[in-house]
Amino acid sequence: MRLLHQDAPPGALRAARLWVFAIWIGKIATEPLERLAEFAPANLPPIGVLKIIPEAAWPWLLTAGVLLTFRVLTVACLLGSCIGPVQTVAAVASGVLLTFHQGLVRGIGYINHSELPLLYAVYILAASAVVDRAGDRSSPAATPAPMRSDVPLLAIAMVLCFTYAATGMSRLLLGAPAVFHPDTPMAWIAGYSYETTYHGWSVGRAVLDLPSAARALLSVGLIVVTVTELLAPCCLVSPRFRRFFLAVMIPFHLFTYVTMNILFWENLALYVFLFDARIFASPHGTGRQLTP
């Protein structure tokens, strides 16, 4: 049995780091986080680790100037995680700042898990950088070995796969058998298609006019997706199943985007970790190590 990313070339880790941090740069740089200052602090209750911040500090933290400064600092650390002489420190700082960011945006409104695998990918890459740097310092007389790419790349793929497995398990244990009734996916599609969203697709409203046979296909499709999600960890050991997984889940995400205005594009972006790591490798070398 051969694990995904086994014996990955060292340059793969650098390419993966650039990919993950670049996605976050695009998200943070374009997101007007300072608009949260328009809400009263009482409407933004701290969640998770943000509860350790003193209550008296929140009126100051939730001002437009502080939030804008926080956003600029986060983008700077993300950039530093990709290039520059302090990539390891910047990667760790990025993980801390993104944790604060996610705590803020998840404290109000609709909450989903679309960004969590991407956040965990930052944790994994930052941790691998610290471990590699610690290993280099423990033997200063020796020539530093190239970074191992297989462990962090496999860890990111595992997080992504087990996120899908947990979603499928939750649907099966909490919703079955009613969730697989033909009327259930029809109600989901119709309900989301009438909500006001950023995307504005209205195609899903036509589901109300579908004949019963077509509605049954929606139910069958949901069953196939659920089984695929439950078996997602098989992607870590089976190239054949990885191809099947992508063949099912990519159309599924595009279908939910067009019909329900729900797009987990962060998950789609992480699908690159389900391909052989050699696609990350640089033809001109083995990559460059992180420095403190």
Element order: H for helix, E for strand: HHHHHHHHHH
Q: What characteristic shape results from the CA principal axes? A: globular
β-sheet strand percentage: under 5%
In the residues, how many domains can be counted? 2
Radius of gyration from CA coordinates: 22 Å
> What does the largest sheet look like?
none
Considering DSSP H and I runs of 4 or more, what fraction of the residues is helical?
A: 55-70%
**What is the end-to-end distance?**
37 Å
Give the structural class.
mainly alpha
- The number of helical runs is 10
Query: Regions with pLDDT < 50 over 5+ consecutive residues?
Result: 282-292
- pLDDT average, as an integer? 86
**Number of beta strands:** 0
Describe the structure.
With 292 residues, the protein is mostly helical. It folds into 2 domains: 1-137, no CATH class; 149-279, no CATH class. 58% of the residues lie in helices and 0% in strands. The protein has 10 helices and no strands. It has helices at 11-30, 58-61, 64-82, 87-105, 116-138, 150-175, 183-193, 212-230, 239-260, 265-269. Helix 1 (11-30) packs across helix 5. The model is unreliable at 282-292 (pLDDT under 50).
Draw up the topology in text:
Layout: H1 11-30, H2 58-61, H3 64-82, H4 87-105, H5 116-138, H6 150-175, H7 183-193, H8 212-230, H9 239-260, H10 265-269
